[in-house]
Amino acid sequence: MDEYIELESRINTMPCKKVQNFPQYKEYSLNKCLMTAPPEKAQQYEKQLQEMYGDVLSIYRSEPFFIEIMPKNVDKARSLDRMLETVGLTRENTICCGDGFNDMTMIQYAGVGVAMANAQEEVKKSADFITKSNDEDGIVTVIDKFILPKE
Fold first, then answer.
1. Labelling 47: which of 61, 70, 71, 116 has CA 20 to 30 A away?
2. How far is CA 87 from CA 84, 98, 124, in A?
3. CA 142 to CA 112: how far, in whole Å?
């Protein structure tokens, strides 16, 4: 196990188990595969995987060291679009906040796309507004600025 898998395991309180033959071990359908690598390698692997499988899979980094692989056309913007359609709202009615590469589609899709101060530079460049970090209650700043009425 690498340091990134151990970090994710701790954050999500999910135990990890090393198995010899994963396809034989799994007992359920997979909806996402999470790969890890040092950031400089992850960027290369992401590109290689997109070249090899981009026509049938959605492949992107959620963090500099995480590569997420999912069925084609599965991302936060498409999910948000379907939810908005269900509740009768439009993208202009949305404010989306994020800090990871996997948040970029949602940030770009939203009426107001917000990047957290702790987001990667590429994520910040895709946003309409940059708020404080997660640890500084950046969402509160967004609510105060865009949602609560001004007195």
1. 116
2. 5, 22, 29
3. 10
Single pTM value for the model = 0.78
DSSP secondary structure, the chain, as one string: --HHHHHHHHHTT------S-HHHH--S--S-EEEE--HHHHHHHHHHHHHHHTTTEEEEEEETTEEEEEETT-SHHHHHHHHHHHHT--GGG-EEEE-SGGGHHHHHHSSEEEEETTS-HHHHHT-SEEE--GGGTHHHHHIIIIISPP-
- 8-25 pLDDT, tens digit per residue, is 888 889 888 888 887 888
- Calculate the alpha carbon distances from 79 to 58, 88, 98, 105, 116 in Å: 13, 14, 15, 10, 21
CATH of the domain spanning 3-71:
3.30.1240.10
Structural domain boundaries in the chain: 3-71, 76-147
Taking domain 76-147, whether its CATH number is 3.40.50.1000 is answered by yes
